[in-house]
Design goal:
The complex is a heterodimer of chains A (about 160) and B (about 375). By secondary structure, chain A is an all-alpha fold. Chain A has 6 helices and no strands. Classes of the chains: A mainly alpha (about 160), B mainly beta (about 375).
Chain lengths: ~160, ~375
C-alpha cells in the first residue's frame, strides 16, 4: 500500500489561519530615523595616528547607534558593516579592555553583532570574531548567547 | 540535602500533601503515582490512571486533601480519597488544546488551569448540579499559558505565557466568594479584569510566583532573565539578565528572596533590593560533591583524547546534585514568607529536598534577607 487513495490536500490548509482568535502581530510604531553613526565612526578609524583610545571611542559610538528599533534592512546592513570594521581594527590585546568597558546591555548588543558577523564570514573576520566571542562570553556568560537567540529586536 | 532518584524518566510535575508524607508525581506518562515516605525510603502507595494524555500539572489541596490533575488530553480531574482509593471526577474545561498547568486557589474552592488554547479556565463547584463548572479568561492572552499562581486573597491570579508577558487577572467568582477588598494591584476586580501586564521581555514566561503578602510577583523567562514587579512601587518592574541558561522554576522563600532553577541543574538565589528597586544574584545553591582527584590511567587518557579530543583530566560530568534540568520547585516548610525547606524535581527523575539553614551555613557568602 504505497499511496493513500484519498486526497490529502487538506493537509496543506493552515487551519489556524481561519481561527477568529488568531494572533496578529502588533504593528511596530514607525521608528524615527536613527542617526547614522557611519561618518563619525569612519572618521575615528581613518585617523592616521590612530591610538587605542580612538578605536575604543569608535567602538562605543557604533554600539550607541545600533539600529535595534528599526525594521530597515539596509540600515542594519550598514551598521553591521561599520561594526565589523571597528571590531577588526582592534589589536588582540585591546579586546579584553574594550569588552570590560561595556555594561550588561552593551555586552548583549556586542554578542548580537558577533553572531551576525558569523553569518557571513569573510577572509579574516571569523578569527577576529572568535576572539571577541571568547572575551564577551567570559563577561556575559551563556545568558548573553541565549538572549541573542531569543531576541525579537535584531541588530 | 536529601536526593532521591525516583525514576530514569523525567518527572513531569509533582505535588506534596499537607504533612509532606506523600508526594504525587507524573512519571512522564498518562499516570500519576503517589509515593509515601517510609522512614528514609519511598514506597508507591497509589497509581491514578484516568488521563489519556501526559499529565502536565498536579496540585494537592492541603486542607481538603483533594488532588487536581490536568493533562494533554484536554481534561482535568479532581480526585478525592474515599477509604484507600482515589476517585476521579471529570471537569470539562471546554478547551481544544492541551492543558499545561493547574493550581488550587488558597481557599481551595476553585482552581485555575492554563492551556494551549490561549485561555485560563477557572473552575468552581456548583452545588445545585453537583458538577464542576468553568469560566474562561481569554483576553488579551495571545499564546499558551505556561504557569499560574494565586494571590493570597483568593481572587487575583498571575499567569505567565508564551506571548512573552506576565499578567495578573481577577478570577473573582461571585457564586463562591464575597467581593474582595482593594489591593495594591487595584480595587475594581470583576471577573477577567486585567490588573497588570508586563512589557515584553523576549522569552516565554516559564514560571511565575506571588510573594507571601501578594504585593510582589516574580517570573522567569526563556531569555535568561528574572523579573519582579512590586505593586507597592507603582508596579515597577525590576529585571536581571542572568549569565546562566534559562530558568524554568521560581519561588519566593522570604518576602525579598527568590530561589530559581532551570537548565543549569542547580538552584540559585536572587535578592530584591527594595531601596534600589533592583534584583541581585545571590549565589549558587548547590553543595558540590568532593570528587577525589585520582589520576587517569594511560588507557583512559587515550580514550579521552580519542572521544573528546581533550587531554583534560578534569571530570566532565556536572558536579551538581541534579544531573539534568530542574523543572519544578515547591516550598515544603515555612511557607513563602519564611521558607525553611524546598523541594526540586527535574528531568533526571530525581527529587531533592533542600534545607535553607544548612545551605546558609554551608555556603558562607549566602545572605537570605
Amino acid at each position: 500500500m504505497a499511496r493513500s487513495t484519498l486526497s490529502s490536500r487538506f493537509r496543506r490548509l493552515d487551519i489556524d489561519a481561519y481561527d477568529e482568535n488568531r494572533f496578529v502581530e502588533e504593528p511596530e510604531e514607525a521608528a524615527a530615523a536613527e542617526p547614522d553613526a557611519g561618518p563619525e565612526v569612519e572618521a575615528l578609524l581613518r585617523h592616521p595616528l590612530r591610538r587605542t583610545g580612538d578605536a575604543l571611542q569608535a567602538f562605543h559610538a557604533a554600539i550607541r547607534n545600533s539600529p535595534v528599533n528599526t525594521k530597515n534592512q539596509a540600515m542594519k546592513e550598514q551598521a553591521q558593516g561599520t561594526m565589523l570594521k571597528v571590531l577588526t581594527s582592534f589589536k588582540s590585546s585591546e579586546i579584553e579592555q574594550a569588552v570590560n568597558s561595556l555594561d550588561r546591555n552593551g555586552i548583549d548588543l556586542l554578542m548580537k553583532y558577533i553572531y551576525k558577523g558569523f553569518e557571513k564570514p569573510t577572509e579574516n573576520s571569523s578569527a577576529i570574531l572568535l576572539q571577541w566571542h571568547e572575551k564577551a562570553l567570559a563577561v556575559g556568560g551563556l545568558g548573553s548567547i541565549v538572549r541573542v537567540l531569543t531576541a525579537r529586536k535584531t541588530v | 540535602m536529601a536526593y532521591h532518584s525516583f525514576l530514569l524518566e523525567p518527572i513531569s510535575c509533582h505535588a506534596w500533601n499537607k504533612d509532606r508524607t506523600q508526594i504525587a508525581l507524573c512519571p512522564n506518562n498518562h499516570e500519576v503515582h503517589i509515593y509515601r515516605r517510609d522512614g528514609a525510603k519511598w514506597s508507591k502507595a497509589h497509581e491514578l490512571k484516568e488521563h489519556n494524555g501526559q499529565v502536565t500539572g498536579i496540585d494537592w489541596a492541603p486542607e481538603s486533601n483533594r488532588l487536581v490533575t490536568c493533562g494533554t488530553d484536554r481534561n482535568a480531574y479532581v480526585w478525592t480519597l474515599k477509604g484507600n482509593v482515589w476517585k476521579p471526577t471529570l471537569v470539562i474545561l471546554r478547551i481544544n488544546r492541551a492543558a499545561r498547568c493547574v493550581k488550587w486557589s488558597p481557599k481551595e474552592n476553585k482552581f485555575a488551569v492554563g492551556s494551549g488554547s490561549r485561555l485560563i479556565s477557572i473552575c468552581y463547584f456548583e452545588q445545585e448540579n453537583d458538577w464542576w463548572v468553568c469560566k474562561h479568561i481569554k483576553k488579551p492572552i495571545r499564546s499558551t499559558v505556561l504557569s499560574l499562581d494565586w494571590h493570597p486573597n483568593n481572587v487575583l491570579l498571575a499567569a505567565g505565557s508564551c506571548d512573552f508577558k506576565c499578567r495578573i487577572f481577577s478570577a473573582y467568582i461571585k457564586e463562591v466568594e464575597e467581593r474582595p477588598s482593594p489591593t495594591p494591584w487595584g480595587s475594581k476586580m470583576p471577573f477577567g479584569e486585567l490588573m497588570f501586564e508586563s512589557s515584553s521581555s523576549c522569552g516565554w514566561v516559564h514560571s511565575i510566583c506571588f510573594s507571601a503578602s501578594g504585593a510582589r510577583v516574580a517570573w522567569v523567562s526563556h531569555d535568561s532573565t528574572v523579573c519582579l514587579a512590586d505593586a507597592n512601587r507603582r508596579m515597577a518592574v525590576a529585571s536581571l539578565c542572568t549569565e546562566t541558561l534559562p530558568l524554568l522554576a521560581v519561588t519566593f522563600i522570604t518576602e525579598n528572596s527568590l530561589v530559581a532553577a532551570g537548565h543549569d541543574c542547580y538552584p540559585m538565589l536572587f535578592t530584591y533590593e527594595e531601596s534600589q528597586g533592583a534584583l541581585v544574584f545571590g549565589g549558587k545553591l548547590d553543595v558540590p560533591k568532593q570528587s577525589s582527584q585520582r589520576g587517569l590511567t594511560a588507557r583512559e587518557r587515550f580514550q579521552n583524547l580519542d572521544k573528546k579530543a581533550s587531554s583534560d583530566t578534569a571530570n566532565a560530568a556536572p558536579d551538581t546534585l541534579h544531573k539534568n534540568s530542574i523543572s519544578q520547585i515547591s516550598v515544603l516548610a515555612g511557607g513563602k514568607a519564611k521558607c525553611s525547606q524546598f523541594c526540586t524535581t527535574g528531568m533526571d527523575g530525581g527529587m531533592s529536598i533542600w534545607d535553607v539553614k544548612s545551605l546558609e551555613s554551608a555556603l558562607k557568602d549566602l545572605k537570605i534577607k
